[in-house]
């Protein structure tokens, strides 16, 4: 039986598309090149306007329209299920528009898949922390998804979100976007201190809700970390070729 | 002006496709997501038979036929220039067939682009070493391309090619294919010893002629190393959006 092609709408930024593709490969049961699942990645970031700018009213063109045009290109290749490795593209005003315009292809929801992953892998936890960029933090994307699923979200204070998490990602000197191979000790220490901050506020696990954060830390002392890209990668396999999914 | 889409025929293996895409991103002058070049990666390894098996007469179906079918899918997306991050797919009996069947899209030649890269970046050198898998070594793909360009190829002895380079890549315990994140100390030491072996035979620089090798070493003492995937990434940018190429 032919395995369906997994679609990835990349380019937001381009590294995040590759990161999701790498996680699909890592979560696939495969020994040979031929065992791996077919995957189509369209990294068309040039078409897609900044998501935060739109959501905060600083630009008027909904990036969901361009994302849907990429989804339709994937659909023309026969892709039926795709993912978007960009948190802010999942703001309702963007995601609703892009799914409305993407007939014939199903886009899995990064944030809802992350919550589902927590339900499946950490069934006894109720208080979930989340680190993210300032725009995802302010939009409350993870907070509302966690609440809808019955969790108590444990967000960092606005000060930590701004001075610690956002700076660890965006600082032009030591931030992860500026230096990711390898990540600087300072950025890593800041991310770990923000994890500890959520823990001190009662979080039992912490979502790394920005595609850059798992580059800095994969594990923390005494508390599980959740990588949304890994959750989405597993969901893409589950929805296309479940027999190929590496057991947890 | 719209930048043409860069095509990547991946899946041979799947990581090599991501590695080439990452090198295109790294070699692109870009600050924002929107600055990056459009890229389409089709990782359809399930369609494409083993290249070495065919070249050595152990299977009868030319993998060039399936590779060309992927090239035509890229062409249907509007892609005009593409690359294949797999050395053995460039054996003449495969590459000639796939280019014959890939009308409307130009496939850059990984090995010829590597030689061109040496001509441009190391103009005074004449003796070039090359490490590769045993099949690429036996096919003499780099050896003949170097000779055609007027270089003196400096290959490892068959014993080193088999017992050191091939094992560093394929050993099921410590090899790079089995353990790449991170690469084992043993594999790294073996690759470096093979580099030193080529140097002791007179090589002035050494090509890492297998997509796994740059995962183990990026620099060596006293001798420049050449990464074909990086050369191909730069060639893909040069042939589509030369103004976007990061200076050497």
Fold and architecture overview:
- 2 copies of one chain form a homodimer.
- Chain A is α/β, with parallel strands linked by helices.
- Helix content of chain A is 46%, strand content 12%.
- In chain A, strands 2-1-3-4 form a 4-stranded parallel sheet, sandwiched between helices. Chain A has a 4-stranded parallel sheet with strand order 6-5-7-8, sandwiched between helices.
- In chain A, helix 4 links the parallel strand 3 (81-83) and strand 4 (106-107).
- In chain A, helix 5 (110-121) packs across helix 11.
- Chain A is globular.
- At the A-B interface, helix 1 and strand 2 of A face helix 1 and strand 2 of B.
Number of contiguous helices of chain A: 11
Quaternary state of this entry equals: homodimer
- List the helices and strands of chain A in order: EHEHHEHEHEHHEHHEHEH
Distance between the termini of chain A: 24 Å
**Which structural class matches the secondary elements of chain A?**
alpha/beta
Short description:
Chain A has 248 residues and is α/β, with parallel strands linked by helices. The first copy, chain A, is built from 11 helices and 8 strands. The two termini of chain A are 24 Å apart.
């Amino acid at each position: 039986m032919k395995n369906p092609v997994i679609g990835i709408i990349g380019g937001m930024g381009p590294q995040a598309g590759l990161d999701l593709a790498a996680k699909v490969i890592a979560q696939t049961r495969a020994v040979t090149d031929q065992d791996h699942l077919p995957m189509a990645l369209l990294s068309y970031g040039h078409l897609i306007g900044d998501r935060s700018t739109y959501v905060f009213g600083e630009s008027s063109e909904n990036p969901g329209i361009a994302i849907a045009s990429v989804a339709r290109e994937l659909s023309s290749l026969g892709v039926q299920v795709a993912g978007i490795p960009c948190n802010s593209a999942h703001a309702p005003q963007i995601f609703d528009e892009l799914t409305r315009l993407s007939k014939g292809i199903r886009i899995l929801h990064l944030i809802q898949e992350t919550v589902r992953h927590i339900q499946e892998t950490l069934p006894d936890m109720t208080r979930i922390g989340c680190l993210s960029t300032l725009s995802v933090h302010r939009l409350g994307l993870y907070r509302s998804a966690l609440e809808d699923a019955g969790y108590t979200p444990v967000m960092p204070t606005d000060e930590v979100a701004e001075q610690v998490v956002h700076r660890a990602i965006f600082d032009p000197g030591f931030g992860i976007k500026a230096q990711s191979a390898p990540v600087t000790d300072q950025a890593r220490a800041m991310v770990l201190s923000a994890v500890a901050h959520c823990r001190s506020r009662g979080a039992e696990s912490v979502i790394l809700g920005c595609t850059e954060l798992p580059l800095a830390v994969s594990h923390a002392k005494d508390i599980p970390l959740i990588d949304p890209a890994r959750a989405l990668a597993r969901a893409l396999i589950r929805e296309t070729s479940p027999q190929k999914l590496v057991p947890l």
